[in-house]
Automatic annotation (TrEMBL):
It is an enzyme of class 2 (transferase). The keyword RNA-binding does not apply. InterPro entries: Acyl_CoA_acyltransferase, GNAT_dom, NAT_camello-type. One of its GO terms (molecular function) is acyltransferase activity. The keyword Magnesium does not apply. Pfam families: Acetyltransf_1. Its EC number is 2.3.-.-. CDD domains: NAT_SF (cd04301). This is GNAT family N-acetyltransferase. Residues 6-179 form the N-acetyltransferase domain.
Amino acid sequence: MRDSHYTIRTATTADLDGARAVMLDTVYRDFGTGYVPRWHGDIIDLGGAYVTPARHTLLVAVDGGDGEVVATGALDSRGPAHPPNPAHVAEKYPSGVTAQLRRVYVRPEHRRRGLARRLVDELLAFAAADGGYRAVYLHTDPAVTGAEPFWRSLAKIVHDEREDAGGGQGIVHFDVPMP
């Protein structure tokens, strides 16, 4: 997929360092957590997490001006684990038949240009073409500026942990319609 400035494509080995930089910058800057191995281990091994497995994918948006990776989006066949996610969410989205959207991140200076939506459209097309997925799931941290409204525009909330006693992890869980 291409417009006058960006190309969306499946990541190549040459793209992995750029994709990893986008992701690590996001967890440090936007999430404020920094790298936490139990949450972000896939970022270190992008090839093993998304490139090598047949039913997984990693997409990148590349700036046509300088060839820099400026946005990422990934999909894998792992449903949300319990714990830390609520049991009913994990039960509704089992591994193997759930496509989980992950790491849809756009560098701040490239936001508001439709890149995240284009990445999601391509990820959903990948999930549909697989033939084995029956649901698409994702979760987001609503503290990240713009994340919750973006996902609300594309998906349906299935659980908002902020409504749990004690607020849970504060995560919002979404079901994304399959194309």
